[in-house]
Design goal:
191 residues; alpha+beta; Arc Repressor Mutant, subunit A; 2 domains; 3-stranded antiparallel sheet; 40% helix
Length: 191
């Protein structure tokens, strides 16, 4: 049993007796530090086993009392489906997605003008993200290229956004699918 999980169980056992206990009361009876109690209590609140009555005062919920009475083991780790994870705020992929939604038809250099902010190899990362979205059916490749900058250039590939599902960027996953946090769908990638 991890120390954090042991702290949660000890706090739930102390609170299940009833009443509202403060951080100081819990610290005295459990021989834990205020920071340890606060951290463990926050996790119990996330699990709806404990409720904070006022700042520094906690009470077990009916679910918490029931869980303690039944001796339910408190486990660490994710408690829900991984698809519920939201993309990072203002991430590079998020800025790319906003640029795609804004421009509708774009090339990688044009998109990087909007989205790049000092990332390492942004053209490589953008290309990888665009290819994943293309395989999942969010983008289609346009037949005409954008003129390149060098004399012998064939030009830059262009894409068009054909599936705009909302403001959150679709997230490619390692299993070859793309999770769309806007719709909750998992899109398979072709090819």
């Amino acid at each position: 049993m991890t120390p954090e999980r042991g702290h949660q169980t000890a706090i739930l056992n102390a609170l299940a007796a009833g009443g509202c206990l403060t951080l100081d009361q819990l610290a005295d009876s459990l021989e834990l530090g205020r920071r340890q109690i606060s951290s463990a209590a926050a996790r119990l609140i996330d699990r709806a086993l404990v409720v904070r009555i006022e700042a520094g005062c906690f009470r077990a919920t009916a679910e918490g009392v029931d869980a303690q009475a039944r001796g339910i083991e408190i486990k660490s780790g994710p408690r829900g489906p991984m698809e519920r994870k939201r993309p990072a705020r203002n991430s590079f992929r998020g800025r790319l997605w906003r640029g795609m939604r804004l421009k509708r038809k774009f090339s990688i250099p044009g998109l990087l003008e909007l989205a790049a902010k000092g990332e390492k190899s942004p053209d490589t990362a953008a290309g990888s993200y665009i290819r994943a979205l293309e395989r999942a059916g969010y983008l289609t490749r346009l037949p005409r290229r954008e003129p390149g900058t060098s004399l012998t250039s064939n030009g830059y590939l262009r894409w068009s956004l054909i599936r705009d599902t909302g403001p959150l960027p679709p997230m490619p996953r390692r299993d070859g699918t793309v999770f769309d946090p806007n719709t909750g769908e998992v899109m398979p990638c072709r090819g």
